[in-house]
């Protein structure tokens, strides 16, 4: 999907938002029932290698509700969370397959999918393509977050499901301690268990790929930086931009610190005064930047699918690569670059 930079027009945007919303949702639900399910090939069954920890008989357990809990709660399981929607299902399918293909212990992986609509359709699509997959589909209540999303930010980034990652600690079972969150626009070429094992140290709530050379100031408005009661939030930290599309989250620490509420509080504030321009990323930066553990950059090879024409491609990460991340769904940095370019142009025009 292509995002066009659009200046917010407060009078028009709710109507425009509604129109865009209906454009996307109407054809999807009508057509997809027939197409989605038959669109993808059935993946083969993937087996653990001999030295994998065995978590009893997977399929039998999952058919039995009580044993399913024992399975999910096993320490050996690698938990992966992704959002699912009909628009990006193609990317999700490829991502899931890539996780399984490159895992040494694919039967020890449990997928936690979060969707906000078309649940039965999406469940059928996943079950048909991955008949042996251990997964659970959670329905995310859009209304939980839609009232918190500031309408001044660009609508394509406003999709409530983009915010679902902040609610994983509430959605997933309490016994799940650690989860790898993945965007839908990436491909793994290495064993996800290694990513899941990223050390979080004594305190970090999450690990993500950090980019300290990115201009952190640009992620927040001058209004934010000029208000000491707000910008002081970064006073004791050295904040860096990080990518929220590949995260290892300690759900227990998150729950203890009630970080979902902290993220919501910044979103509430954003509704009253514009402190940032992007969607779901800045609240994460506000709460966590400078206090996270680092995910090795090999787990976020970005710079794929940038805009050559405008010269907005990111540099590729040198060295070995474990995960390819397209700039397809979120476009955060892409957008940030456009904003920067527009800012420079405006300045040039003024100057
Ligand atoms: C970082 O971004 C801010 C705000 O957009 C800008 O004023 C500043 O000059 C930038 N700094 C660098 C080093 O590019």
TrEMBL record:
Membrane topology of this protein: Single-pass type II membrane protein
Gene3D superfamilies, alphabetized: Spore Coat Polysaccharide Biosynthesis Protein SpsA, Chain A
UniProt signal peptide: 1-30
Alphabetized SUPFAM superfamilies for the sequence: Nucleotide-diphospho-sugar transferases
Pathway: Glycan metabolism; pectin biosynthesis
Record-level GO cellular component terms: Golgi apparatus
Name this polypeptide is given: Hexosyltransferase
Protein family (similarity comment): Belongs to the glycosyltransferase 8 family.
The EC number(s) this enzyme carries: 2.4.1.-
GO terms of molecular function: glycosyltransferase activity
Chief localisation class: membrane
């Amino acid at each position: 999907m292509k995002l066009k930079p659009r200046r917010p027009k407060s009078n028009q945007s709710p109507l425009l938002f509604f129109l865009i919303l209906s454009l996307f949702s109407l054809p999807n639900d009508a057509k997809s029932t027939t197409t989605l399910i038959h669109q993808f090939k059935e993946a083969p069954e993937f087996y653990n290698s001999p030295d994998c920890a065995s978590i009893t008989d997977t399929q039998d357990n999952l058919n039995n509700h009580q044993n399913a809990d024992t399975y999910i709660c096993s320490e050996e399981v690698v938990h992966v969370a992704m959002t699912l929607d009909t628009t990006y299902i193609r990317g999700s399918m490829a991502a899931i397959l890539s996780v399984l293909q490159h895992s040494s212990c694919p039967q020890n992986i449990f997928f936690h999918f979060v969707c906000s609509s078309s649940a039965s359709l999406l469940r059928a699509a996943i079950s048909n393509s991955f008949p042996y997959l251990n997964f659970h589909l959670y329905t995310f209540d859009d209304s939980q977050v839609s009232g918190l999303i500031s309408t001044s930010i660009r609508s394509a980034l406003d999709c409530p499901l983009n915010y679902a990652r902040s609610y994983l600690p509430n959605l997933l079972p309490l016994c799940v301690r650690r989860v790898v969150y993945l965007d839908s626009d990436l491909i793994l070429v290495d064993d996800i268990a290694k990513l899941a094992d990223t050390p979080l140290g004594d305190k970090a709530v999450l690990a993500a790929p950090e980019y300290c050379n990115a201009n952190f100031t640009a992620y927040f408005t001058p209004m934010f930086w000029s208000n000491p009661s707000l910008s002081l939030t970064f006073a004791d930290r050295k904040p860096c931009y990080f990518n929220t599309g590949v995260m290892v989250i300690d759900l227990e620490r998150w729950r203890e610190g009630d970080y979902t509420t902290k993220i919501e509080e910044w979103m509430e504030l954003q509704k009253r005064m514009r402190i940032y321009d992007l969607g779901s990323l800045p609240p994460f930066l506000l709460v966590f930047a400078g206090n996270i553990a680092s995910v090795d950059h090999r787990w976020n090879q970005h710079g794929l699918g940038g805009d050559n024409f405008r010269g907005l491609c990111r540099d590729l990460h040198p060295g070995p690569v474990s995960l390819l991340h397209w700039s397809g769904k979120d476009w955060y940095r892409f957008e940030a670059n456009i904003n920067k370019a527009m800012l420079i142009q405006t300045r040039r025009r003024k100057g």
